[in-house]
Amino acid sequence: MRAVGKLGFELAGILFTVVAFWIPFYFIIVNAGKDVPESSLLNLSLPSSFRFWENVKTVVEARDFMLIRAFFNSTVLTVVSIAILIVLCAMAGYVLQRRTDRATPVFNFLILAGLIIPPAIVPTIWVMDGIGIFKTLFGLVLVEVALGFPFAVLLYKGFMSVIPREVDEAAVIDGCGGLRLFFGIILPLLQPVTATVIVLSAVTIFNDFTNPLYFLPGSDNVTVQLTLYNFQSQYVTQYNLLFTNILLITLPPFVLFLIFNKRIVSGMTAGSVKG
């Protein structure tokens, strides 16, 4: 009886995955290969004439190769943000896990508050404009780091609990200073959770739509998600080009997620053995 129930749950999970993910993905692929009249029907039928490569060429060349510029901006934004996140969050997680004093509960509360309290758009723009980083890539990097900081710190803090304190003590006895201890010994031990932070943050930042729209306006600063506006307007939408654009900007994070899927799971569960 238990075997039948387990099989039923597995089939239900497979069915849910097919309905929630693979059918929409198939819908994007088939409509990306159609012409404008066929794609406007928005159905799951195969195209009568396969025009995928023509649509890709049109999307890439649209508005003076805006998609290429958007890929460059999104890549720089993602790489720089992740590099800062790894260093800052690993150091913060290390300190919060190793030190236990009166200020520790306050810092833990602030980290949790960062996950709960939604960001305020208008005050953030006012502050950024006041210090001269509004409409700059550096300003958007700081926003992405601030938004991803609480979750990454919790991951690092949980993973840090499985690293014995004796490692720190032995390194100090051998003459390691604080920075050498962290970057030479502790940070290399954090590779599993670092891989998790890299993949999750890369997918989130690369696919971010609202923050570049608010904090980095302008055609020269466009990111990949904002290129979706190239093929839709108030009265006309070129669905074949729109779906082709969606497919092109979805593939990089999708491939990254598939490659590092096991590392994500191991990194998120590694700190659950010891609290």
TrEMBL record:
Predominant cellular place of this UniProt entry's protein: membrane
Entry membrane topology: Multi-pass membrane protein
Keywords: Cell membrane, Membrane, Transmembrane, Transmembrane helix, Transport
GO biological process: transmembrane transport
InterPro entries hit by this protein: MetI-like (IPR000515), MetI-like_sf (IPR035906)
Transmembrane parts of this sequence: 7-29, 70-94, 106-127, 133-156, 181-206, 239-260
Matching Pfam families: BPD_transp_1
Residues covered by the ABC transmembrane type-1 domain: 71-260
The keyword Cell membrane belongs to this UniProt entry's keyword annotation: yes
Superkingdom field: Bacteria
Localization: Cell membrane
Family indicated by similarity: Belongs to the binding-protein-dependent transport system permease family.
Cited PANTHER family: ABC TRANSPORTER PERMEASE PROTEIN MG189-RELATED, ABC TRANSPORTER PERMEASE PROTEIN MG189-RELATED-RELATED
Protein name: ABC transporter
Species whose genome carries this gene: Paenibacillus darwinianus
